[in-house]
Design goal:
This protein is α+β, with helices and mostly antiparallel strands and 366 residues long. 31% of the residues lie in helices and 24% in strands.
Length: 366
């Protein structure tokens, strides 16, 4: 097991990692920007290293500063948490090149799963059902051949940013006349958010249920799933409520979806924690419902505590053990599902003005 971990993140996830590391007798190093010197994660950690000014680009996203801090502190591994650099193949590669262990999947898997088209193609080749669609990289949709391919998909359609997530660059298209404007708007937003204007145009799934499967893989190729979560309750394609297990999930559908998740992970030589996301068509989770792979999140997710609640397992501990070269702690038949858990995200939004983001100081909370 590791002696000391630097946590390349802040806030709730840094505190969460510190809790498990302390139980495993792993010393912890927190990183802070100038604005976070008094933050809770800094107070909880064994050591604190300041890595730059308040803007994340000059601190929490500055790979060289994080690596330097880890070396100065004598850490032997780095945990990226979620967000920031957690899905950056460049960061994962820089960590390993520095002689440290990255608590997460290999850089190659991060690079592959970070591209929705490549991930979808690899999943389809592994026999996992995928949503019919095509990639657009600035082509003129008036081109006859392309126009015919788009018509074959049929309406309604969903457009997504190829290089990102979080709902940015996503548009729902229900009328053919609105297609060009929606694509141009989505491309601008994708370029602004991710530096990549390419888009994925897909058939819109009717009455979808959004189901995701938590998986783990060790470096010897063993894989298990930790059942599913449901995150259908969303606003602006951002998850609001997470549940585990998915309400009304039939045993037959659970078996099909979890096996598809393992197939997708196996197809990319995955290692560590990951979440494979699916849309189930038709509004119910009956055993014969059609479902489709949409993406794989190659990291721990914000909603991992609901899985911990119904399995009794510590997912951060599993991450540490797998990164240290240990085999999976349990076999599939030893992982059980017990009870039901919910997680609700609290958003700073203004309900009077269409729930627009609202910033400022929190004076009272009820």
């Amino acid at each position: 097991m590791f002696a000391k971990v630097l946590i390349a993140n802040r806030g709730e996830i840094a505190c969460r990692i510190i809790t498990t590391a302390r139980r495993l007798d792993i010393a912890t190093v927190a990183v802070v920007s100038e604005a976070d010197r008094g933050a809770r994660h800094a107070a909880l950690a064994d050591e604190v290293r300041e890595i730059g000014p308040a803007p994340p680009a000059e601190s929490y996203l500055a790979i060289d500063r994080i690596i330097a801090a880890a070396r100065e502190a004598g850490a032997d591994c780095i945990h990226p948490g979620y967000g920031f650099l957690s899905e950056s193949p460049d960061f994962a590669r820089a960590v390993t090149d520095a002689g440290l262990v990255f608590i997460g999947p290999p850089a190659e898997a991060l690079a592959l799963m970070g591209r929705k088209d490549a991930a979808k193609d690899r999943a389809a080749k592994a026999g996992v059902p995928v949503i019919p669609g095509l990639v657009l990289a600035g082509e003129d949709i008036a081109d006859p051949a392309l126009a015919e391919r788009i018509r074959a998909l049929g309406l309604p359609l969903m457009v997504k940013a190829l290089a990102g997530g979080g709902g940015r660059g996503m548009r729902r298209i229900t009328e053919a006349g609105a297609l060009r404007a929606a694509l141009e708007s989505a491309a601008r937003e994708a370029e602004s958010a991710f530096g990549d204007s390419r888009l994925l145009l897909e058939k819109l799934i009717a009455r979808p249920r959004h189901v995701e499967v938590q998986i783990f893989a060790d470096r010897d190729g063993r894989l298990v799933h930790l059942f599913e979560r449901e995150c259908s309750l969303q606003r602006r394609h951002q998850k609001v409520v997470e549940e585990a297990p998915a309400p009304g999930m039939g045993a037959g559908l659970r078996a099909r979806v979890t096996e598809a998740a393992l197939q997708a992970a196996r197809a990319v030589g995955y290692e560590g924690a990951g979440t494979v996301e699916f849309l189930v068509e038709g509004g119910t989770l009956r055993d014969d419902a059609p479902f489709y792979f949409i993406e794989m999140n190659a990291r721990l997710q914000v909603e991992h505590p609901v899985t911990e609640a119904v399995t009794g397992l510590d997912l951060v501990e599993w991450q540490f053990r797998i990164a240290a070269g240990e085999p999976l702690p349990l076999t599939q038949d030893a992982i059980t599902l017990d009870g039901h858990a919910l997680e609700a995200r609290l958003y700073a939004e203004d309900p009077v003005h269409d729930f627009r983001p609202s910033t400022g100081r929190l004076h009272a909370f009820s």
